[in-house]
Write a structure and sequence with these properties.
- The structure holds 2 protein chains of 2 kinds.
- Chain A is of the alpha+beta class.
- Chain A contains 20 helices and 11 strands.
- In chain A, a hairpin with a 5-residue loop joins strand 8 and strand 9.
- In chain B, helix 1 crosses helix 4 and helix 6 packs parallel to helix 7.
- Classes of the chains: A alpha+beta, B alpha/beta.
């Protein structure tokens, strides 16, 4: 048996998937060496901009890999066509399973609303686009030197998650002037209408021409959470190539967002479908099927084995179990509709019920310091709402603290505000200082950041 | 692009042959860049690093091992919550209220970017002192030192030079001798001799040695340190850093550099390096005692014809007023012996640099065109400037 047989199974699996109701763009599969696979997993893209931080992740991954802790089965990049990479030293049954798994992902990324919205904005050829951007950055290094390019990448990649996906990738600039607020207006805008007007995106079309009744609009007109976009367009002294780097990082970040926000659903969906397709694939040899199902159960199981407890959940396992239950109880049509409409937030809140949580032995815990200073984990009361929120907690705001641009003064100095009320506590100051250093190097005017100290008092960090 | 126009394409494709993937590794490239950055960081930290170890007198062990963390690419993160603890979700057979501990670190962690964000792995970077010195020379654009070129400063060497017909048997050059014999026989044969003798005494050739002079490449450095009570820990550290870098500069130039460590209060002692930096003593400051010992050691152990001599003196500048005359006299003597003499001042009061007793003495010597220089050092950062000055003085003097 060799991976060459995969070429024979692939079209058959694909036909089977379509018969079962899946709908996807074609997939360009490629079987690659494990070393390359490791890089794809580390960089998030086959060819991506160079940055030393990827080198650190690479070494971690490399060590994990050498110690046998980490095995990568597949990486798939949604697009039209999708691009999928399989590893050449995985066995034929494993790669057959993975091929079916990828078809599940392909269906998900074409039909899920969030994926579809992001893809229509970012484009359908992310692999080529990223390679093109990486090439432009290489050219920038040749022209402006490694140090300067690195300084820009340090800042841009540090703010990778600080984008606002509620706006499109191509946003218009803020209006330069707004109507002068008169007393009458004030009253008209109070109540619901007023608040409606304050919503992001509303009222942006207001007068751009310098009319007598208008005043210079503040920048930003409202809290701006898309730090990458803001710096790219409003940094006082940013050069064109630097803006290009910021926008490149931002575009890739938009691309990665649905993968992040639908991880449980998406991995569960793909796992459900690899199991189902292989079960129904009568063209596969019996032994291959058995070996593949063995691989399946290795992937779709809790991180900890029998009688052990894991302190994190396996999204493949939880997602798989949820889809199995939904399809058993509500049928395939409902499942197809859910995979289009939901993301992890609604999926977990709507569909992870008490029965399933108990069956899967899920629990939420908090940490505390033991007497010897060791970390202890205390299992909390079973409460399905707390459990759901604990699962979703790391996913809010792309997993990053909420930091927004509060004000850009006329001298170009920048005020960033950390929304510590919503986040529940202040920033790690040491790291925030470093990030502020990164930002200051590209903003080139004074930069301040307000967050809270341990006692909840406002604390201001400053770079001038 | 609309969402439907891919449907007309041929179905999925499977490519199984390997292309260029093994040829290069982006991961390794970025990893190397990371290491380069670590080295840059270490480079900035060097003065601290060096002052902690006894690297001055150990030419055989010329690497510094530096434990380094992986660099972290910082991002905004929430503060760890000590009071309330972190919340998480786990899976397994546990009851509410159960208290769990980690079996072993990293168990059950899924992603490679795990919550606590790395920084646990460390690696040791071994830096060659020579490399460090090279960096600094590049960075500070320091000139190379020049040995003294006077006749006085020479080494005698036996050099093979030509051949002689007489000499000790051990220096018989067989190849030369056979050549001579062949030449002679050929002449004799042409001259009609029937059977020339194979070898005669005339054929013998001996290698000849001649005594020649060459510039000395040995150097000796005396480090003289005021260890009276006013020289506290931080001042000594500064002195040590300066000594170290001066030493490295000399090592770059000379084949062999010997070191002498002298500490003084109102008398002077010679020490080994390890002891040298730990010495504390009470007593007044009589600098001439140290200068006298340095002069005696130079005269007794280091023939000025064979050694380039350097002396560095570090103090806070104080000296007993009564000692001025003898200190001055001894310094003048030393000036005639040495290639160069440096005074490193770590003054009590930054504003009074070179106004101190010793500072004035050295200044006066400098004004008389003697090979001396004084350097004021208040903090680590000043050391580089002092070192640069020293090597420039040196180069100017030698030119």
């Amino acid at each position: 048996m060799s991976n060459a047989d995969l070429a024979e199974y692939t079209p058959k699996l694909e036909a089977l998937a379509r018969d079962q109701g899946l709908d996807f763009y074609p997939v360009d599969f490629e079987v690659v060496p494990p070393s390359f696979m490791m890089e794809v997993a580390v960089y998030g893209l086959p060819v991506r901009m160079p940055h030393w931080s990827f080198g650190v992740r690479y070494i971690y991954q490399y060590i994990q890999h050498r110690m046998g802790h980490s095995r990568i089965f597949e990486v798939v990049f949604p697009g039209n066509p999708n691009r999928a990479y399989l590893v050449n030293n995985n066995s034929l049954p494993e790669n057959t399973l993975v091929t079916a798994h990828v078809l599940g992902h392909a269906d998900f990324s074409k039909n899920n609303d969030l994926f579809a919205r992001m893809q229509s904005q970012v484009g359908y050829h992310i692999v080529e686009q990223a390679a093109e951007r990486a090439h432009r950055i290489e050219e920038a290094i040749a022209e402006h030197g490694q140090k300067r390019v690195e300084a820009v990448l340090d800042a841009a990649l540090a703010l990778e998650q600080n984008i606002d996906v509620n706006f499109g990738i191509n946003r218009p600039a803020y209006p330069e002037r707004v109507e002068r607020r008169r007393g009458g207006d004030e009253r008209a805008r109070s109540g619901f209408r007023g608040r409606y007007h304050e919503l992001p995106g509303e009222g942006e079309s207001l007068g751009t021409a310098a009319e007598p009744g208008s005043v210079r609009a503040p920048v930003p007109p409202r809290p701006e959470y898309d730090l990458l976009w803001f710096i790219a367009h409003y940094a006082p002294d940013l050069e064109g190539w630097e803006q290009d780097i910021f926008l490149s990082v931002r575009e890739e970040s938009f691309y990665f967002y649905p993968v992040f926000a639908c991880q449980i659903m998406n991995e569960g969906w793909a796992s459900y479908w690899h199991a189902r397709l292989l079960r129904e694939a009568d063209f596969l040899p019996q032994q291959l099927y058995l070996d593949a199902i063995k691989a399946h159960s290795d992937v779709v199981r809790p991180y900890a084995g029998e009688n052990a407890i894991a302190l994190s959940i396996n999204p493949y396992h939880v997602g798989f179990q949820m889809w199995e239950k939904i399809i058993a109880e509500y049928g395939l049509d409902t499942a197809l509709r859910l995979r289009a409409e939901e993301d992890d937030f609604s999926f977990i809140r709507n569909w992870l019920d008490e029965d399933l949580a108990e069956e899967l032995q899920l629990f939420s815990y908090t940490t505390r310091q033991g007497r010897a200073g060791e970390e202890q984990y205390v299992i909390q009361e079973r409460d399905i709402h707390a459990l759901r929120e604990a699962i979703l907690h790391p996913k809010f705001n792309y997993g990053a603290p909420r930091v927004y641009v509060a004000e850009m003064a006329t001298d170009g100095s920048l005020l960033l505000q950390h929304d510590y009320h919503t986040d529940g506590r202040g920033l790690d100051v040491e790291r925030a200082e470093k990030v502020l250093d990164y930002i200051h190097r590209v903003w080139r005017r004074p930069v301040r950041l307000q967050t809270a100290d341990t006692k909840g008092k406002e604390r201001v960090l400053e770079k001038a | 692009m609309t969402s439907d126009n891919g449907e007309t394409r041929t179905p999925s494709r499977m490519a199984t042959e390997n292309r260029w993937y093994d040829l290069f590794s982006r991961g390794s490239r970025d990893w190397l860049r990371h290491n380069e950055k670590v080295r840059e960081t270490v480079r900035e930290e060097l003065p601290n690093l060096i002052s902690g170890s006894d690297v001055l007198s150990r030419p055989s062990d010329r690497t510094v091992q530096v434990p380094v963390r992986f660099l972290e690419h910082y991002r905004f993160r929430l503060r760890d919550d000590q009071q309330e603890g972190e919340a998480g979700v786990g899976q397994g057979d546990g009851e509410p209220g159960d208290v769990l501990r980690r079996a072993k670190p990293g168990e059950g962690e899924g992603g490679s970017e795990g919550g606590s964000g790395g920084g646990e792995l460390r690696f040791v970077l071994e830096l060659k002192v020579d490399d460090i010195v090279d960096w600094i020379w590049e960075e500070l654009q320091l000139p190379d030192l020049k040995p003294k070129t006077t006749d006085a400063l020479t080494d005698e060497d036996l050099i093979q030079e030509g051949w002689d017909k007489r000499g000790p048997r051990a220096r018989l050059d067989r190849r030369r001798t056979v050549k001579e014999a062949i030449k002679r026989r050929s002449v004799q044969e042409q001259g009609g001799d029937a059977e020339p003798t194979p070898f005669s005494n005339e054929d013998l050739r001996y290698r000849q040695l001649a005594r020649r002079k060459r510039p000395a490449t040995n150097a000796v450095v005396a480090f003289l340190l005021d260890v009276s009570a006013s020289m506290d820990e931080s001042r000594r550290k500064l002195a040590k850093s300066f000594f170290f870098w001066a030493m490295q500069g000399l090592r770059r130039q000379y084949g062999q550099v010997e070191t002498v460590f002298i500490a003084h209060t109102n008398q002077a002692w010679e020490f080994s390096e390890e002891e040298f930096f730990q010495v504390t003593a009470t007593g007044g400051t009589v600098a001439s005692s140290g200068f006298r010992l340095a002069r005696d050691i130079f005269n007794e152990r280091f023939d000025p014809a064979q050694y380039n001599q350097y002396l560095f003196y570090a103090s806070d500048g104080d000296n007993f007023g009564d000692d001025r005359r003898s200190a001055e006299a001894l310094l003048s003597q030393l000036c005639r012996l040495v290639n160069f003499m440096g005074f490193v001042e770590t003054p009590q009061n930054p504003l009074e640099a070179s106004k101190s007793e010793m500072g004035r003495l050295f200044k006066a010597l400098g004004a008389r065109d003697q090979p001396v220089g004084s350097y004021t050092v208040h903090e680590e950062a000043d050391i580089w400037e002092a070192i640069r000055l020293f090597f420039q003085h040196q180069a100017d003097d030698a030119a």
